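Q: Sequence in, structure out?
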Amino acid sequence: MKREVLHAINRARVNRKAVATLTGPAGETDRVFHENDLPDGPLGEALARAFRTGKPGPVELESGNAFVNVYLPPVRIVVIGAVHISQALAPMARIAGYDLSVIDPRTAFATPERFDGVDLRADWPEDVLAERPLDAHTALAALTHDPKIDDFPLSAALSAGCFYVGALGSRKTHVKRVERLLALGHTESEIARISAPIGLDIGAATPAEIAVAVLGDIIAAYRRRGLASPAGDGA
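A: Exactly. Output:
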């Protein structure tokens, strides 16, 4: 592998960016592609597929057979609210292979006893996210029902281009949320990215079932990046 290719991969890793490399017919890895800058044709399709699945694979070019490798940052799930849904979601996310952290300034809820082994921050989201900003490979799930806690991270997630942004609450609640986000300067198209009510529509009733719906929605959003897909419509 050429030195400049290795440097590009390392820079992407540090900055939590996704890149793919192409090994040509001659066996030399000499091209680096970024997720949001793909060529047309079979190569672009192969690269897009690799970015969605995280799996390498062959591609047939005019010059011969080549091979695509992909390097993705670990997927993060940031949950706002140390609530019952979060308690159920944390072990599910771990099983699915996703890093999960919970942020809640309410110290009565954000306790180590309730979230054993979970990356838990009993602080305001604006303070925590200043230290570890959101990015395109992060999902944001706002679960407190409290605008004072939820609105800032929702706004930050839209600005950062998080691949998933979801918020708990009824449609009536979301109408008011939309008004507040518009006042913060977000456009209607940006706000339309929010999965609200959060999660897949599976008829979830309990906190654990809602957690399943949320995780399923997150997985679907991640694996369908760049593809048209229906919005979540759940809890």
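Residues 80 and 90 are 12 Å apart (CA to CA).
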